[in-house]
Design brief:
By secondary structure, this protein is mainly beta. The protein is about 10% helix and about 15% strand. The strands form four sheets. A three-stranded antiparallel sheet has the order 2-1-3, with no helix packed on it. A three-stranded antiparallel sheet has the order 6-11-8. A three-stranded antiparallel sheet has the order 7-10-9, with no helix packed on it.
Length: about 450
């Protein structure tokens, strides 16, 4: 039988493997062993020193130590088992000494479609990753999936309301950052039967925000909400019992109908006391989609005048109404001599030179208004029936309010989450103080 040289250096060290049918190193001098049928199976070595067993392979693509466990039905086998009894020990340490390239300290490979390349099991942290390098590409734990529908990192937690599949925390930066370069992808995607994404801010001040959305691209959208299933679906739902449920700084556009149970008003600093008061004005309301136009015109020598309206007036209005008031003198004979035609109308019957205040109203007749006429009286349907927009005004309790159940659910905090969030400060302090010292570089003999 041919033999090949195998360098087996047995250094002074200690590995505990009792009860595992393994090998525990003993104190021996370094020895070169060449027979390929050489074996130490079942032997027990013990001693003390830097290494219980050191095996080196100087081949370009060789393996220093290879462990193979043959499958036996009904059992769990291990190719290599590492065990450390020290409070700061490592059962298995993988060390990549190259300072360049994608070197890997420890690599796990599973050929099973339901297997795990690396599996960590612990009463504290199953897998712990630590990165000491700087830069945006530095990561304590890095997950990569090349499958078309795979997950780079998958976190699952199914035990209790305070369990989190993925938990990110930081004392200075961002706890969790998601990034997608896909034109239809999402940086962070949350799905849930309750809240897909839940943001909580524990800080104080006007800059404290539970959920923050920002778009830096041209014509982008900072926050987008979509809900298209059911009459009680809300794309964006804001709730505040003291402040503003929604606050917009800038232009606001509504494509569709807009409604309110309260006043639709403008508010400005009070012109007589701008530092201490506000001034409110309510909007004029009507059961029709009504436009109002007015102005002042002077009558000619015959006591008449033409009033010109915008060129688009008749294209967006119909069913006109008129009001005329003489200014400075009675005008009992004032009348509309010619109704609106060609975007103008004529006033007559007044005193020559008199000033006339006029008002014209029209019902909106643009394409949107024509196809979406406002219904003045509408029956409540489904879950709205028997409920009130303003129950207090009808002597009803708050529980009879419209969407009260949804309102209570939306405004109720996640108790377990809040308890966990309350410990963030302590966790951050622990994480900032917790360091895992880098293992000393093994004093590996050179060839």
């Amino acid at each position: 039988m041919k033999t090949r040289s195998v360098a087996l250096l047995v250094m002074v060290g200690l590995i505990l493997a009792t009860g595992m049918g393994g090998v525990v190193a003993t104190t021996k001098a370094a020895t070169d062993v060449s027979p390929n049928d050489h074996t130490h199976y079942g032997q027990v070595w013990n001693g003390g020193g830097a290494y219980g067993l050191l095996v080196q392979n100087f081949a370009a693509s060789g393996i220093g130590l290879y462990g193979n466990a043959v499958y036996s039905p009904g059992t769990t086998t291990y190719g290599v088992v590492g065990r450390a009894a020290s409070p700061n020990g490592r059962g298995v340490l993988g060390w990549a000494v190259s300072t360049t390239g994608p070197a890997v300290g420890t690599q796990g490979i599973s050929a099973s479609n339901a297997g795990y390349g690396v599996f960590g099991d612990s009463n504290y942290r199953g897998v712990y990753g630590l990165s000491r390098a700087g830069g945006s590409s530095s990561a304590g734990v890095f997950g990569l999936s090349v499958a078309s529908s795979g997950n780079g990192v998958l976190g699952i937690a199914n035990n209790g309301g305070a369990a989190y599949g993925v938990w990110g925390t930081t004392t200075t930066g961002n706890g969790v950052v998601g990034s997608s370069t896909s034109s239809s992808g999402a940086g962070v995607l949350g799905t849930s039967t309750y809240r897909g994404v839940y943001g909580v801010s524990t800080g104080g001040g006007l800059s404290s925000v539970g959920t923050y959305g920002q778009s830096s691209v041209t014509n982008g959208t900072g926050v987008e909400g979509i809900a298209s299933s059911g009459g009680a679906a809300f794309g964006v739902w804001g709730i505040s019992s003291a402040g503003y449920a929604g606050y917009f700084s800038g232009k606001v556009r509504v494509i569709g109908d807009f409604s309110a149970t309260g006043a639709k008003s403008f508010v400005i600093d009070h012109p007589l006391d701008p530092a201490n008061k506000y001034l409110y004005h309510a909007a004029v309301e009507s059961p029709d989609m009504k436009n109002v136009y007015d102005g002042v015109v002077s009558l000619d020598a015959k006591g008449s005048a033409w009033v010109s309206l915008p060129a688009w007036f008749e294209s967006i209005n119909k069913d006109f109404r008129y009001q005329l008031t003489s200014i400075g003198a009675p005008g009992p004979n004032l009348y509309v001599a010619q109704e609106i035609q060609g975007n103008r109308f004529r006033i007559a019957g007044g005193q020559p030179g008199a000033k006339i205040s006029w008002q014209v109203t029209g019902i909106r007749n643009d394409p949107y208004a024509a196809q979406n006429r406002m219904q003045v009286e509408v029956n409540k349907v489904d879950q709205e029936r028997g409920k009130y927009l303003y129950p207090q005004g009808y002597g009803q309790p708050d529980s009879m309010g419209m969407y009260n159940q949804k309102l209570n659910a939306a405004g109720q905090p996640l108790t377990a989450s809040d308890q966990k969030l309350a410990t963030v400060g302590k966790m951050n302090m622990t994480l900032s103080q917790e360091t895992i010292a880098a293992p000393e570089t093994p004093a590996v003999p050179v060839r």
